[in-house]
């Protein structure tokens, strides 16, 4: 019996254990070294130093670090922890950790438990063993992880083991960033500095602005045995072959439907783990496609939100195994049904309690809202190509623009009310604002922008960057992506635009304009300059592609081309002037992303070849032989051709598909050999993109046709109808 049928027969034998119901508030954050916990385990000096570091970004003295380390160890040991690790996010796309025990020996051989400030602050993983884009050679191994006090330490539970995890950045021996967190922290600080200066036009009490993030994690869940029987799912995270089932998502009956019992038990289980880790999950539901689901948390500060999402993806994958399930985070694991994204809901909050993207109740607060709202649109307009590069990846290329996700064209949706406000301001381009206009405009703004923005305009699911009431939703981010990439870009371009805005306003004030008038003049200028990026219609339509081209908006459809935006002079100036990336770091990341693209497409091509030659064609030939035997038997019985006409027709069709598959796989192999000899990474990536666009869909077409023709019992790969409908 094939793996497929073994898997199918084992499904009903999977017992599911449902965790006992627990009040969320009773377990939330119990495995996190929160400030409340710190107050209990740290001295006053250590606690105040930690608070100052978290809230003010000041470095912690190493002597005080020893006290903090001892307090963290005491807390961890009280919960049964014996090991610790620096938990970081290298450019592999996953997390990394090396566990060390608290155990050590004194000079006299006495065994003790120890965790000092040096171990808390810094460790030394091998930098040459992680992607570096040429920054580190194989013989240049030294790299450093450094503690990030702004993200609290936590305890991860794996089976019966518990490990203390210290969130850290990861840098090379020469100081370049080799992770996602370090640039994100720099971008957050750049935005804070620029945003505070602009906020002070309106409120001198604002001393800190923090970007916030609420992510929405989409994912698929399928049976573990079925997934294991699919080599493409095991090694690629997606199915490279698979005929659409008779029933997919066309009845629209899965979205928000009743959650299957096995998945429900899994959800409750991973939510329990997430709550203990301080991840504030609030929402769970069925998504549009069968076997697709979503969870979403309460908004958090960007750095912590990114850590929590990265951690949750790991938790979900581990917990799924307990339920004999597999979580698929690939952006497009199944053809013909919706893929998965990770919508990033982004805003900015002041230390005075104001959401800068929420309209206020007074003319003054509405003018501040309008300032940050328009600056966001201007930032997206000016740096749309860099935003596109931030979401570029081989898996996301399968999803973007596929009539289920935003297109590769970056545009902004603001809704009819705010579109009218912007239009009204723009139409005054021929006149200069004066004192009377100031009062009228403020009053009009107050009336035009409703107090509650959540429900006064429709949502546009086809927009890659949409205003949704008190935040912008970056919808084009892929489900497997680290949110830090898009958040680093978004915070940096916003920081840069706000710097320019302040300079433009200051210049007008110096010429004698009143502050409010100067602000409106610059807002008007930015609206005019960036209006081409505003689009309220159907982003899936062919008409929009033509319209976007007319407007001069970039339409970068593939990753190798989209990534070019990261190494332009514009990008280098942007990131270096804001202290986020150096030229060297940008070049290295460009190289890393190209290499990842090449390797992912290369793996998929190899899997396609392997499955075609070792699974598909043998199954088809076996069926072909049965047809031949049947035809020959009917001939031997003296029956005329009419008796086996259908068999001959099927036989011919099967033979034709086998031949095309065999020929195209061989051509694809030869094309890979040519591509592998290309030295330049960009040219090599473009060559692999050509291989994908030339061969993948055509080979798949013929394989999927065979799936409909070949005897079901001979087909070795689990089918969509078996994987997508959990039993």
TrEMBL record:
Domain GS catalytic residues, every copy: 180-616
One BP annotation, GO: glutamine biosynthetic process
GO molecular function annotations of the record: glutamine synthetase activity
Domain of life of the source: Bacteria
Domain GS beta-grasp: 82-175
Family membership noted in the UniProt record: Belongs to the glutamine synthetase family.
Protein name from the UniProt record: Glutamine synthetase
